[in-house]
Amino acid sequence: MSDTESSSSSPGDKFVEQVFSSYQDLYDEIETGERMEHDLMPRLVRHLFLDALGFSPSDYEQEDDWNDVRFYDDERNPVIVVEGKKRDVDAEEGIDQAFRYASSTTYVRYLIATNVDKMLVYRRCDESEADETRHGVSAKLIADIEFEGIVNKVSGKGITDDLSLDERQSSVFS
C-alpha cells in the first residue's frame, strides 16, 4: 500500500489492515506441522484480540485447557465467547458449544468459533433476525473468515498482496 493510500484510509480500512497484519504475525510464529489448540489460542488472543482489537490481558480468561476464551465488560460480564478447536478440526464444530456457553447469560453479544485458520463470528440478535437459534440463543453470522487462504503461511505466499482493500474487507465482513 502506498503512502497516499495509507493516509486516505478510513478507520475501518485501518482496522481491516490491522487484523490482517496481526494474523500474519500469528502465522509467522506458527511452525509448520501439527500444533495443539492449547498453544495456538493464547497466540490468537495476543495477536488478534490484544494487539489488533485493543483488549487488555485483564479483559479475558481462558479455561484450564486454554481452548475456550471469555472476554468481559467493565462489570466482568462475559460479552464475547470464543470456542477454539484444533487446526485439523472444522471451526463449525465449535458453533454449538459457543451457543451453549452463551445460553448461560444474556450478556454475551458475540459468539466465535475458530480453529485459527477459519473464524466464524456471530452477533446475538432477536430470533426474527437470526441465521441460527441454538440452546435458546439466536444469532446472525456476521463474518466467515478463511484466514488460512488469506495469509497462507504454509505455501509461503499469502494472497493478501494480490487483493485490493475492498476485496480484503469483503472477505472479513459478510
Question: Which key features would you list for this structure?
Answer:
single chain; 174 residues; disordered N terminus; alpha+beta; tt1808, chain A; 7 strands
Architecture blueprint of SSEs:
Blueprint: H1 3-7, H2 11-29, H3 37-52, E1 60-62, E2 68-72, E3 78-84, H4 95-102, E4 110-114, E5 118-124, E6 132-134, E7 137-146, H5 147-151, H6 165-172
Parallel strand pairs: 3-4
Antiparallel strand pairs: 1-2, 2-3, 4-5, 5-7, 6-7
Helix pairs in contact: 2-3
Describe this structure in words.
Pfam families: HSDR_N_2 (PF13588). This is Type I restriction enzyme HsdR N-terminal domain-containing protein. This protein is of the alpha+beta class and 174 residues long. The protein has a single domain (3-172), classed as tt1808, chain A (Alpha-Beta Complex), CATH 3.90.1570. It contains six helices and seven strands; from the N terminus they run H-H-H-E-E-E-H-E-E-E-E-H-H. It has helices at residues 3-7, 11-29, 37-52, 95-102, 147-151, 165-172, and strands at residues 60-62, 68-72, 78-84, 110-114, 118-124, 132-134, 137-146. The chain has a seven-stranded mixed beta sheet with strand order 1-2-3-4-5-7-6, sandwiched between helices. It is globular. It starts with a helix and ends with a helix.
